[in-house]
UniProtKB/TrEMBL annotation:
<dbReference type="InterPro" id="IPR038296">
    <property type="entry name" value="ParD_sf"/>
</dbReference>
<keyword id="KW-1277">Toxin-antitoxin system</keyword>
<dbReference type="Pfam" id="PF03693">
    <property type="entry name" value="ParD_antitoxin"/>
</dbReference>
<dbReference type="InterPro" id="IPR010985">
    <property type="entry name" value="Ribbon_hlx_hlx"/>
</dbReference>
<dbReference type="InterPro" id="IPR022789">
    <property type="entry name" value="ParD"/>
</dbReference>
<protein>
    <submittedName>
        <fullName>Type II toxin-antitoxin system ParD family antitoxin</fullName>
    </submittedName>
</protein>
<comment type="similarity">
    <text>Belongs to the ParD antitoxin family.</text>
</comment>
<dbReference type="GO" id="GO:0006355">
    <property type="term" value="P:regulation of DNA-templated transcription"/>
</dbReference>
């Protein structure tokens, strides 16, 4: 597969490869795709939790919802999701 990232990303890719963090532009793209996959996994998890909450019903204040989402975000960071 031949992928062009566009001029806005070329400099970043070059910098990352020159720094030695990645051996090639392909490795940079692979890492980006891994991060996208991980983010999609997190979003799926959050959507499932939201669906569970909606099915349970009830009402919550904006502050309760924000606190709940903050708690989920902290758990995701701890679990490495």
């Amino acid at each position: 597969m031949d992928v062009s990232v566009g001029k806005s990303w070329d400099g970043m890719v070059d910098t990352l490869v020159r720094s030695g963090r990645y051996a090639s532009p392909a490795e940079v793209v692979e890492e980006g795709l891994r991060l996208v996959k991980e983010r999609e996994k997190q979003l799926d998890w959050l959507r499932a939790r939201l669906q569970d909450a909606l099915e349970k019903g009830g009402s919550h204040t904006d502050e309760e919802v924000e606190a709940y989402l903050d708690d989920i975000e902290r758990k995701l960071v701890v679990e490495g999701r």
